[in-house]
Amino acid sequence: MNRAIDFFLSSTMRWLLLALAIVFPLVVTSEYLVYVMALAFVWAIAVYGMNIITGYCGQLNLAHGGFFAIGAYAVAILTVDHGWPFWPAFAMAGVFGAVFGLLVGVVSLRLKEHYFAIFTLSVGYIIYLLIDKWEELTHGSLGIISISPPEGFGLVDFTQTVPFYYLVLAFLAFAIWITRRISESLLGRTFRAIRISDDLAQSLGINLMRNKVLAFVISTVYAAFAGGLYAGVVRFIGPEQANFIHTFDMIAYLLVGGFGTLMGPLAGTLIVTWLTQAVQGLEEYRMIVFGPLLVLLVIFFPKGIVGTFLSWRGRRLARQAPRGDRASRTGGSEPTADQSQGARNNA
């Protein structure tokens, strides 16, 4: 019964959030706010990718922002320099993300813990240097302008803010659905076993290298697709898109929302994005306000906002569970008063 209630509540919450996202452009008066929300959704897609490799599989990938930039530059170079339409270029962004993710993952995932994190940080910096210095391919520090936007259909024009918002929302909903399917599958349980302990996972017959590389590739595909969407909405990118600071931004989103949770990446991205917008008027002093707010969130919600809520709800349901339910979960039933008295008499 508790599982049925838990599923109903989580399912209802997801549908409620989707409904709020759909009506958001209809109730706000500023197109700029719609644009900010669309960009937040783009970053949330990339954060869901980081959640798969870091939250579920326990491998801290510090090159995630670099793969975001690879997707963005794939769309920019193919549309501007080679005249491709947006959608074929967008598909190729995912291919590039998978190929480079496979190459980096096969090498880096032989390392463990902080060695892996340091190696991927170096990979992210190498990606940044290549984008900044390889002028024949990436246009160097000048960046790439006039990137082709997504082609619309009929009366839908994705160069306008509101239609693009709904396009990104559709991709985000699909990313969340895929993540949920992975989380609830045998593959997701395999990833969590690896996060708990490599030795435990190996003792269960799990192929560590294959599953870690798979998680890494899935995460880089998410990041590359998010970068492709970013290039389509902003229509200008430069080497700063590969800056490792974006990776640490995504880690902050996960810290606030909750590692290894389904809705944590979305909650953390939206909360941090709108907190940043709220203190933007302070200009160069905004980080003095925003920094302590972020620290307080991490201190009082160490599992993230979503993770803390799930832990609290789990404890509450456990306390409210009937005695019979608790006994059935322990594999037996609680004795009645007559059975207890009979046992004492027999003794």
UniProtKB/TrEMBL annotation:
Secretion signal span: none
Compartments where located: Cell inner membrane
Cellular component aspect of the GO annotation: plasma membrane
UniProt keyword Transmembrane helix, yes or no: yes
Domain of life per record: Bacteria
InterPro entries: ABC_transp_permease, LivM-like
Transmembrane intervals: 7-26, 32-50, 62-80, 86-107, 114-131, 162-179, 213-238, 250-275, 287-312
Record region (Disordered): 321-347
UniProt feature, compositional bias: Polar residues: 330-347
Keywords (A to Z) from UniProt: Cell membrane, Membrane, Transmembrane, Transmembrane helix
Pfam family, one: BPD_transp_2
Main localization of the protein described in the UniProt heading: membrane
Membrane topology: Multi-pass membrane protein
Record's protein name: ABC transporter permease
Species of origin: Salinisphaera orenii MK-B5
